[in-house]
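Field reference: sequence -> structure
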Amino acid sequence: MSPWSAWKARWWQERERRLLEAHSAQEGALQAQIEASQHRLAAQKDDLLALEQRQAERKEELAKANEELKTQLRLLEAKASPTNVWSEAFSLGVSKAWDMMLPLMRESVGKSYEVIFADAVEQTLQGLETTICRRLDLAEKAHLRPANELLAKREEFKAKAATTVDLVAKQKYEHYVSALDWVLHQGSNGH
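Structure field:
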């Protein structure tokens, strides 16, 4: 390597080193500025949150004061007209009583429906038992269907009960399955 090439390589290396040092210094200064800006932003955010909190508290205080003023105005109006006080108090009392009683009434109606429904199902099952006994008597005179047909029908009703979303239909299928279980059980006992 010639002296000129060696000098030129050193000069470029020195130039590169100086540029890297300058770049590192500028990068460090920029990083410090960014961190300082982030700290300022965080402090401003905290200040903003504190201001929002104070504003919310103040708004709540003003709402309470406004409600208190409304109450005071009603009281002043009531002194001028006692019948309005009685009428307003009665209306408010009836409204609160209705709000309290409505859930109880709904619950009572629901329970009444359940009792009526259970009674209807029980009566239907009692009637169904008589029908099944009559059909068994008729079946003894005619050719009996194989038990596997009854089992197939039972499985069909079971599948329908599992897939239906209609509560009444679901219960109807479940009762059919119960009736077929009873028939199959009675047949297996020899009765």
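Note: The first helix runs from residue 3 to 80.
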